[in-house]
Amino acid sequence: YAPPNLFDCLWGHEFMWSSMDDLLSGRALSLYYYNLAYHLPQYLHIDLRDDNEHCLGLWWYASTCRHLGIGGTNPDGRNWMNVRRQMAEYIRLQDYFKRGVFYGIEEEVHVHVLPEKGAVVNVFNLSDRPAKKRFIVDLGRMGLSTKGRVRVVGGEHVRLGDRLEIQVDLEPWDHRIVEVQVGK
Q1: DSSP conformational letter for 120
Q2: Taking the complete model, does pTM exceed 0.85, yes or no?
């Protein structure tokens, strides 16, 4: 990548043509593994016409590609208001996705950390059955302050010293955001 410390954006493979199908088929799981292996940002433009009511595709690609282009809504307009609500949430949290450090707990649990602020955890259910996801976020390992107050929004949790055990209930093909705020 040319001179030292110069990073270019990589194109996010070819997942823009059938974004939701690529996710449901498992092909887009490669983006999770790319993020574990490399810290080079990717760009991807996605088509939301086939995204579901949970905006599963929007959140998967937002979680795995730092620079996201978005287009397409269903021709009958059924997902437009939901996409607008989800985009407002994404814009509120975009610094975590664009500048945060990516940690993968498992394929369906991604953590984006801004050490000075906290973390955003994307929890996915990539199956056709309801799921109860339980996972551990190790605050110290992720460079987050373990002193003082920790606030968790979006999931049931128990603090275990420097770690959080979090549980989230999901519908089939669902997504949830859990915010972890650290500080004073």
Answers
A1: E
A2: yes
